Amino acid sequence: MRKSYNPISRRDFLKLAALGAGAIAFRPFAKQDLPEFPQSDLLGRVTVGKVDVFIRPNANSQIAGALYEDNVVPWIRETVGPMPGRINQRWVETPYGFIWGGNVQPVFNQPNIAVTNLPTTSLGQGMWVEVTVPYVDLVLDNPPARAPWLQYRESIGLPARFIYSQIVGVDQIRTDESGKVWYRLNEKYGSGDLFWGQAEAFRSLTAAEISPINPLTQDKRIVVKIWEQTLSCFEGNTEVYFTRISSGALYDAWGNRVDVWETPIGEFPIWRKAISLPLSGGSASAGWSLPAVGWVSLFVGTGVAIHSTYWHNNYGEPSSRGCVNASPEDAKWIFRWSLPQIPYDPGDVTVEMPGGTKVSVEKKEI
User: Fold this and answer.
1) What SS3 state is found at 150?
2) Which one in 80, 106, 126, 166 has a CA-CA gap of 20 to 30 Å to 188?
3) pLDDT tens string 261-294
4) In the chain, what is the straight-line distance between the N-terminal and C-terminal CA atoms, in Å?
5) pTM (whole model) above 0.70
6) Inter-CA distances, 160 with 139, 184, 330, Å
7) Residue 166, Cβ neighbours under 10 Å: how many?
8) Which DSSP string corresponds to 33-68?
């Protein structure tokens, strides 16, 4: 039987909007729970301001409605269908219709049991944590806002928010009068903004899961094929890992070529790795600012890296501003496998030349 799709009612969208972008004012240590996300094994979070929902996985089909940034919906399946003007032809089916896959992040809703005591590290008490819910709203501990991303959200009336798969450091833990545990979130190399977030939204990382993969193998190299939008990891001549990536976009939204966005071509050694870093670039009028990016492997001195991505799901199509965007799972595997090896403490290593694993970025000659 063919499933029918009805346009999303105003009531349905109001319910979804309650789970999406909107100003949520609250004090730390107040009685407030995490949002009630839809019940589904896999969820999808809209990553851009607005997406159309179609009755079929085809951009020429009827539009059933719209979803907005940070709306969270059940992810039924991924399929293929026409999306003119895009390389990525993947679509996500939801109970409301189909969304083009590049604009919906796969997420889970997996709350955690809070940690109440911080371990001691070489930098003092602290731990690394990863967001394991679709998103969590934060409270700024030391206003005013400093980071550009936070200033922008405040300017349009949106709360500070961390997204599924972001990684950040915790340097304090407090329990409020209702017994709810809160973590203070501190980006070591950030702009100085400190946040409080509900502990159940964060999973503490362990040293074991950051342990090196095949650490005794020295003959390792990474090959990024720009024309295929793929990344392969080799041990000698054996390919041991393969994934789709998103390299530097060559054109802006108006079809103008932007050479500075291109991922540099050539062979480069990984010279720095960090479990989490804030990334930013561009100009004051056309810049970008991304906090708490996980599994960062820098291989060009200008800041080009292989890293986790939470702001799109457009792998297989050039979309970045020069870096090699990978899914959180792929970026983590590459991070653990490549050299230099990096310990949980301090979670950030810089090496001198000749550096670590070589990254070869190849551009097919026409």
Assistant:
1) helix
2) 106
3) 899 999 999 999 999 999 987 655 456 789 999 9
4) 47
5) yes
6) 7, 13, 27
7) 23
8) PPP-----SSEEEE-SSEEEEESSSSTTS-EEEEEE
